[in-house]
Amino acid sequence: MNNLHFTRWSDQLRESGHEVYWFDILDQGYSPALSWMTQVTGWKKGFLKKRGRTFVKKRFPKFFSFLSSKLDISVETAFEKALLEIQPDVVHSFALYISCTPIFKVMKKHENVKWMYSSWGSDLYYYQNIPEYLNDIQKVLPRVDYLITDCLRDHKIAIKHGFKGDFLGAFPGGGGFKLTAIQKYIKPVAERKVILIKGNQNRSGRALPVLEAIVSISKLLIDYKIIVFGATNPEVRAFQNQKELDITVNGILSHDQILKLMSSSLIYIGNSNSDGMPNTMLEAICSGAFPIQSNPGNATAEVLTHQSNGLLIEDCEDMEEIKQNITFTIQNLDMIQKAFEYNQLYAQEHLSRTIVTKKVLLMYQSTEPNYATN
C-alpha cells in the first residue's frame, strides 16, 4: 500500500544492501518516490488496459463488474506469480486487512516463506470489534512469523488472537523523524502562543469535543491563537465562525506546514476513539509542543506520563474532561517548560530517524537464517 507511512518506513532500507521489491497490492501504479526499489505494479488490468475503463465503470457499472470478475487478474494470482519469480527471504505486509488478508491463501500455501506483518494504528485495536475483520485477524495471525507494531498494546492483542511468532518490537509507523529538519523551526516555550488541534471528525477522529471544550473556556484562552488543521467535516469547519476565539480552521495542510505550526505551538491536542501510537503526537513531541492526547487501550500512556510530559484524554467523547485538561495545562506553564525539555531529550534518544533506522535494520537482520551464527 503506497502511503506516507509506507514510503517513510521503506526508505529506511534504501542503500542498506537489501534487495527490496514492492508488490503494489492495490495496483495504484508506479511510484517515483519508491524508484530505488523494484516495483511490481500494473498487474491487474485484464481488459481495456490503456483507456476506457473509467468510462465503462461510470456508465455501465454492472457490466464493468462482470468484465472485471471474468477478465481482470486477481491479487492472489498476481502475488503468487511474483512470489515464485522473486523467491524472497521474507514477505513484509503492512496493515492486515489491506495487505495480509488478500494474500493469505498464497502465504498459507507457501508455508516455507517467512511472513512479517506491521500493525498500524487501528489495525488490530479497532477492527477486532468487527466480526468479519476479527475472522480475518484470527485467520492471518497464526500464519505470521514476525510481528512489528507501533505500540506494545497491539502485541498483546495479537497474542490474544492467535499470534505465536516472534515479536520484533514497537516502532513509529513511518520510522523515526528527521529532527535536524524540525529543529530549524522550533521556538522557545516563552514565544509560543498557539493551541494546535487536529481537526479530524470521522470514524475515529473526535475533534468536535475538543473544539466544544475550547469554546467553553474562551475567556481563559484570550491570549492564545487556536489553529485547527486537517478539518474536512462541515461541523468542524463551522467553528471558524466563532466570535469568542481567535481561531483559524484549515483543511488539509502539507507535512511541512504542520511541522512549522507544531514548532511554534504551545499545546497540541489530538483526540480519537481508536489509534495505535499516534504519529502526529510523536511529531508534536519532536517539535516541542505540549501534547494532550487520547489514550485508546492505554497505547499513548506508553510514551506520555499524565501531568508530566503530556496529558491523557481517557474518554474521547467527554468534553468536560478535555476542558479540565486544557485548563490545567494553561495554568501550569512550569509543567510545559519541563515537558519541553524532557520531550526534546526523549526525541533525541528514541525518535530520531538515525537511531530508529539503525534499530530497524538490526531487526531485519535478526530474521536472516544465519543471524545467530554471525
UniProtKB/TrEMBL annotation:
Keywords, comma-separated and alphabetical: Transferase
Pfam name, any one: Glycos_transf_1
GO molecular function (one): glycosyltransferase activity
SUPFAM superfamilies found in the cross-reference section: UDP-Glycosyltransferase/glycogen phosphorylase (SSF53756)
Gene3D superfamilies, A to Z: Glycogen Phosphorylase B
Organism: Nonlabens xylanidelens
Stated name of the protein: Glycosyltransferase involved in cell wall biosynthesis
Segments forming domain Glycosyl transferase family: 190-333
InterPro entries, A to Z: Glyco_trans_1
